[in-house]
């Protein structure tokens, strides 16, 4: 096989599926202090809570955008995984300076602490739709 030049590839965003995307976007906006840069209402035939939203890092910060889109047949993931259950196919890792303070903040924003905590220096939490995310030092 002939070698070819690698095309230009840039990760620009991460998309999370949700049954209530604009509500979940509001949670992440509170948690991260990121502004919601774009929102779309529900499409034809969709429930009023459907739609799409995009968060972006504040001015002066870099990083990919976080999109939250409506999934008609969304199933809350189970973590840790269990046979035959919907698994979390990805999760967010969020660096923090003070783990205890960050966990308290996340809970005030609407997250819940996972019962299973697999390692020291990392805390697994769930967003309101059940997606796990990790806070770490």
Walk me through this protein's architecture.
By secondary structure, the chain is an alpha/beta fold. The protein contains two helices and eight strands, in the order βαββββαβββ. It is globular and about 45 Å long. The chain starts with 12 loop residues before the first strand and ends with a strand. The mean pLDDT is 95.
Please tag this protein with its features.
137 residues; alpha/beta; 2,3-Dihydroxybiphenyl 1,2-Dioxygenase, domain 1; 2 domains; four-stranded mixed beta sheet; 17% helix; Glyoxalase-like domain-containing protein; Glyas_Bleomycin-R_OHBP_Dase; Glyoxalase_6
Produce the secondary structure layout.
Blueprint: E1 13-18, H1 21-32, E2 36-40, E3 52-55, E4 65-70, E5 92-95, H2 99-109, E6 112-113, E7 122-126, E8 132-136
CATH fold title of the largest domain: 2,3-Dihydroxybiphenyl 1,2-Dioxygenase, domain 1
Q: Total number of helical segments?
A: 2
Return the average pLDDT rounded to an integer. 95
What summary fits the major beta sheet? 4 strands, mixed
What's the architecture of the largest domain, going by CATH? Roll
CATH top level of the largest domain?
Alpha Beta
End-to-end distance? 44 Å
What's the overall geometry? globular
Helix/strand/pairing category: alpha/beta
Rg, please? 17 Å
Low-confidence stretches: none
Strand content: 25-35%
Order of helices and strands: EHEEEEHEEE
CATH homology superfamily name of the largest domain: 2,3-Dihydroxybiphenyl 1,2-Dioxygenase, domain 1
The total beta strand count reads: 8
- Helix percent band: 10-25%
Tally of domains: 2
InterPro entries: Glyas_Bleomycin-R_OHBP_Dase (IPR029068), Glyoxalase_6 (IPR041581)
Protein name: Glyoxalase-like domain-containing protein
Pfam families: Glyoxalase_6 (PF18029)
Domain Glyoxalase-like: 15-136
